[in-house]
Specification:
Layout: E1 2-5, E2 9-14, H1 21-35, H2 41-57, E3 63-70, E4 73-80, H3 101-108, E5 111-117, E6 120-128
Antiparallel strand pairs: 1-2, 2-3, 3-4, 4-6, 5-6
């Protein structure tokens, strides 16, 4: 696990294994505490995005979780190495057992986007500070 930290940005690189999702959550929780962001929503969203990275892009390498504070918006970004699959929230059948994760992410965030960064994909969620 490699970590880089500055006053307004913190990144951790994690092995693409299910057990690292808790480390991703802890990383974002510590950043939120450091910058005084009191909502648990960034941690909840991190859990979903990290889980998706492990499940859908895990065979393509590690993933990175970045938390940053930019102009009053706390951003959580999860980068993986599967750029050919760009996720978006979609409606699912009521009895579906999966597929609601990005709907939850979209409901908890004020900003949501997916960026291609070379051979990487970044799923980004933004939270307005109060």
């Amino acid at each position: 696990m490699a970590t880089t930290v500055s006053r307004t940005r913190s990144t951790v690189r994690l092995a693409s294994k299910p057990q690292t999702v808790s480390a991703a959550r802890a990383h974002v929780r510590r950043f939120c505490e450091r910058v005084g962001f009191e909502s648990d929503d960034p941690v909840r969203v991190t859990s979903e995005l990290a889980s998706n990275a492990v499940e859908h892009a895990g065979d393509y390498g590690d993933y990175e979780v970045t938390a940053s504070l930019q102009g009053g918006v706390l951003w959580v970004e999860v980068l993986d190495f599967l750029p050919c699959s760009l996720p978006s929230p979609v409606e699912v059948l009521e009895d579906a057992e999966a597929g609601r994760g990005l709907l939850v992410v979209a409901a908890l965030t004020q900003r949501f986007r997916v960026d291609l960064r070379g051979a990487r994909k970044a799923v980004c969620a933004g939270f307005e500070s109060d």
